[in-house]
Design goal:
268 residues, alpha+beta, Uridine Diphospho-n-acetylenolpyruvylglucosamine Reductase, domain 3, Enolase-like, domain 1, five-stranded antiparallel β-sheet, 31% helix, 24% strand, globular
Length: 268
């Protein structure tokens, strides 16, 4: 079967076209084009030309990133400084000018570092066609079954104190390698104690996921050596990491606590 490319002016029209039968959405192309070239994807491929998908807007503390915003655009935006370390570790320059915010939400293991950061930030996905918003956590959960839908943008509140956001990525090749694991944390403090802890791991499962056990340990505590040690002990709890060419499941479980400890010590 040949590949047929359909171009639509809006994401709403693309969503309607997808509803008519099997089709694949083409965002930045870093993942889909590889599969097309390998002959894995055949049939209808949909792309959208709406410039709104590439818009970055800020209203108060709320950041909105169009699904077509690239990692290069994030890394170059002065008001997105907290995300510069995240975007800057995704591939090399050629990948960053193509890889998109929306694409990261659907990137298969071990890709999707930016989605890990969005998960820790409590981001919400703005769905196409007036579908309202959904927590990014739900989109990541539903993407495997094809129930996630098309994402138009993501929104999140910038942490009031940039020091409450932390990012740590482990890869075989620096600085652009694929993740052995990635960790993002948002740890707001009130009176020296953590309130509303959010910690997410990437490459520790089929999709980025929150580390519920770590969050329970951190919540309401000061970020001291004892708390960090307890959090590191439960870092891999609730995860079933895969084995791939980068690392075994055993290795990922073993080093998760080591790298979480390093991140938390940097944030203390």
């Amino acid at each position: 079967m040949a590949v047929t490319v359909e171009t639509h002016p809006t994401l709403t029209e693309a969503a309607q076209a997808m509803a008519r039968g099997d089709a694949v959405y083409l965002g930045g192309g870093t993942g889909v084009m590889r599969l097309i070239n390998a002959g894995v994807i055949r049939g209808r491929v949909l792309r959208v030309t709406d410039p709104g998908l590439r818009e970055i807007s800020l209203s108060g503390e709320t950041v909105r990133l169009g699904a077509g915003v690239t990692m290069a655009a994030v890394a170059g935006h002065r008001d997105l400084a907290i995300l510069h370390p995240v975007a800057g570790t995704i591939g090399g320059p050629a990948i960053r000018v193509m890889a998109t915010v929306g694409g990261n939400l659907f990137a298969p293991h071990p890709y999707g570092d930016f989605a890990t950061a969005l998960l820790a930030l409590g981001a919400r996905a703005v769905m196409a066609g007036g579908g309202g918003t959904r927590p990014v956590e739900e989109v990541l959960r539903d993407r495997a079954g094809g129930r996630a839908g098309l994402v138009a943008a993501v929104e999140f509140a910038r942490p009031r104190d940039a020091r409450t956001f932390g990012w740590h990525k482990v890869s075989r090749v620096k600085p652009k390698g694929v993740s052995v694991l990635a960790i993002a944390a948002v740890l707001p403090r009130e009176g020296g104690r953590i309130r509303g802890a959010r910690v997410a791991f990437g490459a520790m499962g089929p999709a980025p996921a929150r580390a519920a056990a770590v969050e329970r340990v951190l919540e309401g505590q000061s970020l001291d050596a004892a708390t960090i040690a307890r959090a590191a002990e439960v870092a891999a709890e609730g995860f079933d990491p895969p084995t791939d060419a980068l690392a075994s499941a055993w290795y990922r479980r073993e080093v998760a606590g080591v790298h979480l400890r390093r991140l938390l010590e940097e944030m203390a």
